[in-house]
Structure formats: structure tokens, C-alpha cells
Amino acid sequence: MTIARCESPNELLTELYRVQIVPNSGIWVFRGQALATSWRLEPSLFRLGLKDEQQERQFERDLVDHLRQNLASRSMVPERYLSDEDDLLAFAQHYGCPTRMLDWTLSPLVAAYFAASGSLKYGSTEPLAVFAVAGITSIAAHSATSKIVYPRAGSNPNLAAQSGVLIRHGWTCRDYWQDQFEQPVTASSPSVTGRLDSRFIRFELPAKLAGSLLDELRRRNVDGVTVFPSLHGFAALAFDHAWHSTRRILGQLSEPDDDEPGTA
After folding, report:
1. What is the per-residue pLDDT across 131-183, written as a single tens digit (0 to 9) for each?
2. Following CA atoms 65, 67, 69, 71 in sequence, which dihedral angle do they give, to the nearest 10 degrees?
3. Of 248, 233, 252, which Cα lies nearest the Cα of 158?
4. Eight-class DSSP state of 23
5. Which residue did the predictor score with more confidence, 57 or 152?
């Protein structure tokens, strides 16, 4: 894995776009996290603290069965959707249930939004992070237990708005993405080559710039309202604004040197 430490929101977004258009590098997917190192790339089901794999399997079976039964009897979701376990798990994941799915997106701006919003909420001094992976299907092929899922978005407006894709981890594949790259390489402007580790990048930005990153994303028409296409989005926007104001009052935010809207 390559670690790229950025000094401003514009630098972060420019670098994300730069790697995305590298010729022959495959389709890039992105994931934003509030904490660069404290949070591993591990699905929420595996963080529940259940006793063992048997309990985790039982939890997932109960979740999927109950969701399928209730959607079938009390909603207008099509039968073909209910018969696909990946679609059901993706639905559950996007509405707050712990699953073996890990959220990614085709949009670097969406990933940056979740990283910035989360960073404001947690108020940590740890950098926020946007992970970028190229040719994700070929990388996943190195692990027979992980699977890339492009779920149907018709019954999942959040997924559609967020350009979402997911990785379904296997029961023995708990943190594959970081475990396969235990020796990170630091580079200010990473080069994408044929090497696998150059196609797995963690872009970092100081937490004190989270508010400025949200401002820059808003100028590019990405905020809570666009990411959550319902009244939920207006609550998310207010949530971000309240934390932004609070962190500023507490002196936990600063402005970048190049805070003018940039092009990327």
C-alpha cells in the first residue's frame, strides 16, 4: 500500500482524480474513513464482538431471512431482488445493519465527503483518509473468499446517489485489503505502475482541514443532500454544519493555504 499525505483539500481531490485517469489502471473505487489508521478495512459484522464465526453466520442468516420475509409481505420490492442475497445484504448495509459488506464508491468526491463528515464528528487529531484501489476485481481475485458486488440500485436510492459498490468479505477474509499490504510505502504524489501495492493507495489529509474539505466539496455540488437523496440528506447537511461550527469554536479546524475552489 502507498500512503500519500496531502496538505490541502484541493491537493487531495486533485490527486484522487489524477490516479483515476491513469491509462490502463482499471476501474478505481474509493472509500472514505474518518480515521486513517485506527479503523481497519473490516466489515461491521466482524466488529460486533460476537463469540465466533458460528454466531456471526447465525446473525447474518437471521438478518437476511427476516429482511426478505418482511420486504416480501410489506413492501413492493420485486421478487427477483428478494431472491438475491447480495442485494439483500447491500440493502441492509446501506440502512445501518452490520453485514459482511464493506462500502466503496466509484466517486472520489463521495468518498472524500464521508471522510470529512466523519472526521468532524469524531474530532480526532488523526488524519482522515480516502482509500483508492485500481483494478479492484483483479486484486480481489487474489482472495477466493472476497467478492465485488454491484447491487441493483433501483430499490436503494442511497446506493444510487453514492455511486456505491461493495466488497462482500468471506468468513476467513476479515481484513484482506490491509493484511495483503503490511509494508506501506510513503509518497507525496504516488505513481501508479503494474505493481499491486501502487494500485492500493491511502490518501491522508490533516483532520484540522475536514471542514475546509466539506466546503470545497460543497462548491463541487457534493454534500449531505446530494449523497442522501431524501429528507435524510437535509438532516445530514445540518449535522455537518453543526459539527463544523462546533469544531471551529473549539479551535480544532484551520483553513488551507489554497482554499480557493480548484479544478481537478
Report:
1. 998 876 666 666 667 778 887 766 678 888 899 898 888 887 666 555 555 55
2. -160
3. 233
4. T
5. 57
Sequence spans of domains, the chain: 2-249
Average pLDDT, the chain: 85
Helices then strands, each counted (H, E), the chain: 11, 8
Distance CA(220)–CA(262), nearest Å, equals 9
| Confidence check: pLDDT of 66 > 70 | yes
Give the predicted TM-score (pTM) of the model.
0.86
Q: Which residues make Cβ contacts (< 8 Å) with residue 260, sequence separation at least 6?
A: 10
- DSSP string computed for 139-196: HHTT-TT-EEE----TT-HHHHHTTEEEEE--TT-SSHHHHT--S-EE-SSPPP-SSG
Give the cell for residue 104.
466503496
Query: Which amino acid would we find at residue 50?
Result: L
Distance separating alpha carbons of residues 173 and 177, to the nearest angstrom: 9
Write down the residue that cell numbers 493555504 correspond to.
Answer: 257
> Grid coordinates representing 6?
496531502
193 dihedral zone (left: phi>0; alpha: psi -120 to 50; beta): beta
3-state DSSP of 56-80: HHHHHHHHHHHHHHHHHHHCCCCHH
| Cα(240)–Cα(205) distance, integer angstroms | 18
Given a cut of 90, whether residue 227 has pLDDT beyond it is yes
